[in-house]
């Protein structure tokens, strides 16, 4: 017969932690006011690890103190194909798990109305904070911040409002443009997506600056800006350019907003009889993932590893204390260049 589980007492926990039983009792009864955030978290983590079962509170409620909420920008949903944020979440979850925490998907900005947010973050809630994936509206962020001040934004910056972690967009675009320039390309176009988001504006601005740095200028006739930024938009952008392909000044290369758009553009050009990269070069302005498409070659690109963005977000959220006088960190991670099969030296 298995032995029954031994109940651990608050007195035992206090002794093991080297703190007073009164403080342990306050924390395990849900009191947070006036208690140091790190001490509060330490007590709960140790209590749950030892199998402590709080009275009047079910286990799912008790374990929330070891959870970090995850919210996605609109219009993304959990079911939206987004390899980029999938990798971010992987890095976030893995890094948090190593520290005894886990992640909980709370929803998307588009379906988290005020009432739902208030239910998640009632007074005395036990979530350790929220990581927001992508750029959300200022009004949504204000509503969220009124309920929970420990917030980290990934791939978006909100100076003076919350912590953030972003990739070095200027560095990434400089790498891509210099690579194409070194291959002999002098006519380079832009296939953009997620127009209206700060992330697109940051990349497009960095692209223009990078062209200037190598003595090139951008021909606005070969610039496409679309609302979304997936493979379908890459295909659409390429088709928008194809009617101009007979011009003598048609680009020999295009830089795409991301590698998913680049993959879509590759497909479009190939279906029209173009050889990639011999007839046209394509590169992405982010870290190229291992795309699961047998008919698409590895994309050349440069950007910050999204897994590392998630890992950095985990460190920031665990360090956040949520007080009114907390200083905010805007963390910029370096970009890396990845040579693929979609760029080649210009013939002749």
CATH architecture of the largest domain: 3-Layer(aba) Sandwich
Q: What is the count of helical runs?
A: 12
| Biggest sheet architecture | 6 strands, parallel
In total, the number of domains comes to 3
Shape: elongated
Please report the distance between the alpha carbons of the first and last residues: 82 Å
Radius of gyration of CA atoms, rounded to a whole number: 25 Å
Mean pLDDT: 88
CATH top level label of the largest domain: Alpha Beta
Classification by helices and strands: alpha/beta
Parts with pLDDT < 50 across at least 5 consecutive residues: 1-5, 56-64
Looking at this structure, what is the CATH superfamily of the largest domain? Response regulator
* Tally of DSSP β-strands: 12
The CATH topology of the largest domain turns out to be Rossmann fold
**Which strands sit side by side, in order, in the main sheet?**
2-1-3-4-5-11
The succession of helices and strands, N to C, reads HHHHEHEHEHEEHEHEHEHEEHEE
SS strand fraction: 15-25%
**Portion of residues in helices?**
25-40%
């Amino acid at each position: 017969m298995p032995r029954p589980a031994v109940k651990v007492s608050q007195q035992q926990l206090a002794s093991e932690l080297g703190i007073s039983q009164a403080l342990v009792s306050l924390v395990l009864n849900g009191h947070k006011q006036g208690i140091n955030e790190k001490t509060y978290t330490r007590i709960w983590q140790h209590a749950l690890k030892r199998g402590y079962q709080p009275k009047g509170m079910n286990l799912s409620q008790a374990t929330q103190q070891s959870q970090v909420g995850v919210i996605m920008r609109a219009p993304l949903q959990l079911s939206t194909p987004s390899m980029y944020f999938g990798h971010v979440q992987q890095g976030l979850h893995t890094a948090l798990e190593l520290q005894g925490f886990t992640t909980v998907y709370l929803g998307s900005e588009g379906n988290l109305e005020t009432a739902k947010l208030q239910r998640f973050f009632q007074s005395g809630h036990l979530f350790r904070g929220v990581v927001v994936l992508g750029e959300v509206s200022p009004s949504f962020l204000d509503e969220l911040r009124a309920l929970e001040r420990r917030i980290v934004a990934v791939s978006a910056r909100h100076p003076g409002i919350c912590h953030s972690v972003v990739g070095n967009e200027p560095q990434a675009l400089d790498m891509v443009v210099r690579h194409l320039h070194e291959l002999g390309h002098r006519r380079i176009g832009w296939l953009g997506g997620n127009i209206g988001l700060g992330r697109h504006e940051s990349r497009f601005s960095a692209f223009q600056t990078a062209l200037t740095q190598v003595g090139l200028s951008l021909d606005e006739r070969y610039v496409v800006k679309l609302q979304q930024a997936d493979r379908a938009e890459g295909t659409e952008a390429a088709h928008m350019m194809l009617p101009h392909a007979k011009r003598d000044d048609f680009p020999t290369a295009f830089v795409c907003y991301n590698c998913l758009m680049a993959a879509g553009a590759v497909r479009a050009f190939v279906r029209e009889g173009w050889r990639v990269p011999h007839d046209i070069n394509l590169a992405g302005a982010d870290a190229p993932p291992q795309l699961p498409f047998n008919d698409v070659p590895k994309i050349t690109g440069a950007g910050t590893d999204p897994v590392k963005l998630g890992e950095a977000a985990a460190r920031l959220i665990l360090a956040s204390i949520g007080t009114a006088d907390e200083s905010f960190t805007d963390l910029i991670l370096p970009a890396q260049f990845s040579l693929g099969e979609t760029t080649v030296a210009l013939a002749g």
